[in-house]
Design brief:
CATH superfamily of the largest domain: Spore Coat Polysaccharide Biosynthesis Protein SpsA, Chain A
Radius of gyration: 22 Å
Pfam family, one: Glycos_transf_2
Structural class: alpha/beta
CATH architecture of the largest domain: Alpha-Beta Complex
Number of strands: 9
InterPro entries: Glyco_trans_2-like, Nucleotide-diphossugar_trans
GO molecular function, one term: hexosyltransferase activity
Protein name: Glycosyltransferase involved in cell wall bisynthesis
Keywords: Glycosyltransferase, Transferase
Helix content: 40-55%
Number of helices: 13
Order of helices and strands: EHEHHEHEEHEEHEHHEHHHHH
CATH class of the largest domain: Alpha Beta
Length: about 325
């Protein structure tokens, strides 16, 4: 069989380990290298993970534990010691459904010209994973260019949905050292392997993404804190483009436009009128929703906007 490296990890994630590890043990694929990275937990995460060693070994899996001190980026530490032909990651609070590994391996083995494969998944509440709140984008499979979609934030990069070919990843990182960042950690893995390569899609729910009541949301942060996080997302994308020698003036402008649109939405949400107006001026082609919000923030222009909108609607009817 072909070895797969599955990397997971946590900081103080003891309450999630039993459920996550149970989902790994439920896999029908046996040549699995499970790598758990503990990021300096102060609870019993490290000890609890160790108690699963025998269960993994009985299943035929190999099991490695990495203990580090508050580095934040668990895939990087796991990837350095991985030996699998294929690599996948999984957040400790999420779960894989039985057959997830097997189906992804089967796809890549049957399609050697593909660099990665991804699956659909369901978003569920932490205390009730029997009723999905929603699913990942149903138009996942329609993506013609996963690299561009990842770059522009048009598709998800959720751990547990992707499996990548290690040899292609290590062409970009021959020393097996992935640039560290506490945000968008999967982009550092996915952008290199999706550039100018085929990426498969399995239209099945093969993982559950847990939504927590205490999880980060923009609603719980002020405008500048939230904007700073999105700025870090942008910086990761820019640094990866630089590393891949792909940061042209056209791509830089596209990146600026994408994130200025995001910042515009944040400014509207947090009622930052001056920020909104300044950002609106930077957009080359503001969409309909942005134009409506701009009109609402500029009351003098609202009546003019509504008159024009009414005229367009009438013309479409005739």
């Amino acid at each position: 069989m072909t070895k797969v490296s599955l990397i997971t990890g946590c900081f103080n994630g003891e309450k999630f380990i039993p459920r996550c590890f149970a989902s790994i043990l439920s896999q029908t694929y046996n040549d699995l290298e499970v790598i758990f990275v503990d990021d300096g937990s102060t609870d019993t995460s490290l000890k609890l993970a160790e108690t699963y060693r025998e269960k993994f070994l009985q299943k035929g899996f190999s099991f490695k534990i990495v203990s580090q001190k508050n580095m934040g980026f668990y895939p990087q530490s796991g990837i350095k010691i991985s030996t699998g032909k294929y690599i996948t990651t999984l957040d400790i609070d999420d779960i894989l459904l039985p057959g997830s590994i097997q189906k992804r391996v089967d796809f890549l083995e049957e399609n050697p010209d593909f660099s990665a494969v991804r699956t659909n998944g369901a978003i569920v509440q932490e205390n009730d994973n029997s009723k999905p709140i929603s699913y990942f984008m149903d138009d996942f499979y329609e993506s013609k260019n996963v690299f561009e979609d990842l770059l522009e934030g048009k598709t998800t990069n959720i751990p547990g949905t992707y499996m990548v070919c290690a040899d292609i990843l290590f062409k970009y990182y021959p020393d097996k050292i992935i640039p560290m960042n506490r945000f968008t950690q999967n982009l550092q893995i996915l952008l290199p392997v999706t550039y100018q390569r085929k990426v498969g899609y399995i239209h099945e729910i093969l993982m559950h993404y847990m939504r927590h009541n205490e999880a980060f949301t923009a609603d719980k942060n002020d405008y500048f804190t939230t904007k700073k996080q999105y700025e870090s997302f942008k910086e990761v994308r820019k640094s990866l483009l630089l590393r891949m020698n792909l940061l042209t003036s056209e791509r830089q402008n596209k990146l600026d436009q994408t994130y200025n649109s995001i910042f515009l939405e944040l400014a509207y949400k947090f009622n930052k009128k001056d920020e909104f107006k300044n950002l609106y001026k930077t957009l080359e082609r503001p969409n309909f929703e942005s134009r409506v919000k701009h009109a609402l923030f500029s009351r003098k222009k609202l009546s003019t906007f509504l008159v024009r909108l009414e005229g367009k609607i009438k013309r479409r009817k005739h």
